[in-house]
Amino acid sequence: MLPPLRLLLPLLALGLAACDQAPRFTQAEPGEALSAGNATVFKRDHNAFSQPSANLSPSRRLDFSVGNSFFRNPWVIAPATTTARDGLGPLFNTNACQNCHIKDGRGHPPGPDAVSAASMLVRLSLPAGAEHAETLERLGVLAEPTYGGQLQDMATPGIAPEGKVRVSYRLHSLKFADGHSVELRQPALEISKLGYGPLHPDTQFSARIAPPMIGLGLLEAIPAAAILANADPDDADGDGISGRANRVWDDALQRSVLGRFGWKAGQPTLNQQNAHAFAGDMGLTSGLLAHDDCSPGQTDCRSARHGGEPEVSDSILASVLFYSRNLGVPARRDLDSPQVLAGKGLFHQAGCQRCHTPQFTTASDAAEPELAKQTIRPYSDLLLHDMGPGLADKRSEFLASGREWRTPPLWGIGLTETVSGHTQLLHDGRARDLLEAILWHGGEAEAAKQQVLTFAADERAALLAFLNSL
Ligand SMILES: [Ca+2]
Ligand SMILES: [Ca+2]
Ligand SMILES: [Ca+2]
Q1: How close is the Cα of 36 to the center of ligand 1, in Å?
Q2: pLDDT band for position 1 (50/70/90)?
């Protein structure tokens, strides 16, 4: 059945206008294969995300592998004979960074029979008022009074874990213009076996899977001015897309700066992100975060044995920083194939690049010389966007609202299955593949999604081929 002509005509006109603007790509651009400039790596197997930046010298590769060992190997409960890696807990989510960042790639939500949520974590907070301005400036959120800012579902012997997390899904489907239908799953969290009494009735939850670790030093080396240049907080250019910068507390500088890392850009630097991961995810203190993540009421947690002060020495924190800055990004594959080039055209036609910014150049004064002055292709603007009610966690973090998320980089996304053994995407892993991820886009990205919904089977395949070549 066809819709009446008077409805079709404006739609057709829109479609044509968009097609006119869409660039056609007949061949790859110079250097396009090198997503991370000279740091690009050429593995494409299950170790593709675990390679050091290609431009690291042999001695620097040694530093990288020291950092790798602290990222990969499990930490143990104190006291232990391995004093360099003890102090796990008392509350924690898992015992190694790599358990969540699977093969340096992404995590996933727990399956129905999982013992712990492992590679997904749940953030907690309460709605805050004006009287909490100072806490919000420093911490970005008002923590749940008993359970803190994060639910730890594991604990050392003798200490109660905070609870158990399960995810259940409600299914609905979305239809393309040609009748093709895709089923989407909306997650709902179930938290049970609470170890410290009831949660505050107003508690807000945000489930997040671990993002991939590649290219992070390069993202850190993008000049703040280049990121801010793409922000358009009031949508002054009227394209329906705003893009806002998060401003977050920098523990080392003791002031608010641009946020870059995490699903809501709630962390300013890799070192601070890493220190928070050690403390929040594994119960390990460091020079930046001197206390285990125990709330005032969690007295057993506060009096438990520790593994040194701090548990993560400055030199280990520095090695893990060097490691996390230097995981190379794999080179593009098949980027000259006609289907991939057609998909690239459709990506631009739909306006995906308005948030998934194809290209940046890193600063000349980057933290490490290998990261400086590189032309990189992350496909992210590192800005916050209102993605609509469907993706909203209704929980703010610094300036990010409950509907805003940071555009995630798309580089390497085509290797997700090969590296991490699954293709569960978006902040909580609800999308089971690339197409589902696109169909969850709403809010500022609603128009882009609506365009994709008009794509025919061959156009959908081309768009996915392009994404899989990244
Ligand atoms: Ca500890
Ligand atoms: Ca907690
Ligand atoms: Ca705009």
Answers
A1: 36
A2: very low
pLDDT reported for residue 84: 87
Q: How confident is the model at residue 21 (pLDDT cuts 50, 70, 90)?
A: low
The CA distance from 392 to 427, in Å, is 10
Residue 181, strand partner residues? 175
Instruction: Provide CB contacts within 8 A for 134, sequence distance 6+.
Output: none
Q: Which ligand is nearest to the CA of 237?
A: 3
Give residue 294 CA to ligand 2 midpoint distance, Å.
6
Amino acid at 312: V
3-state secondary structure of 159: coil
Summarize pLDDT for 281-332 with one digit per residue, the tens: 999 999 999 999 999 999 999 999 999 999 999 999 999 999 999 999 999 9
Convert the pLDDT of each residue in 22-34 to its tens digit.
688 999 999 999 9
How far away, in angstroms, is 236 Cα from ligand 3 center?
Answer: 6
Please tell me the distance between residue 231's alpha carbon and the centre of ligand 3 in angstroms: 8
CB 246 within 8 A of CB 161: no
Q: Which of 416, 457, 412 is nearest to 182 (CA)?
A: 457
pLDDT at 13 over 70: no
Cα 8 to ligand 1 centroid, rounded to whole Å = 63
For residue 79, the ligand closest to its alpha carbon is: 1
Question: What is the CA(268)–ligand 3 centre distance, in A?
Answer: 24
Cα distance between residue 219 and residue 463, in whole Å = 25
**CA proximity to 361, closest of 371, 349, 351, 352:** 371
Cα of 146 vs centre of ligand 1, distance in Å, is: 18
Alpha helices (runs of H) in 29-76, residue ranges in sequence order: 58-72
C-alpha 319 to ligand 1 mean position (Å) = 19
Cα(242) to centroid of ligand 3, in Å? 5
Centre of ligand 1 from the C-alpha of residue 300, in Å: 12
Closest by alpha carbon to 174, among 467, 424, 455, 461?
455
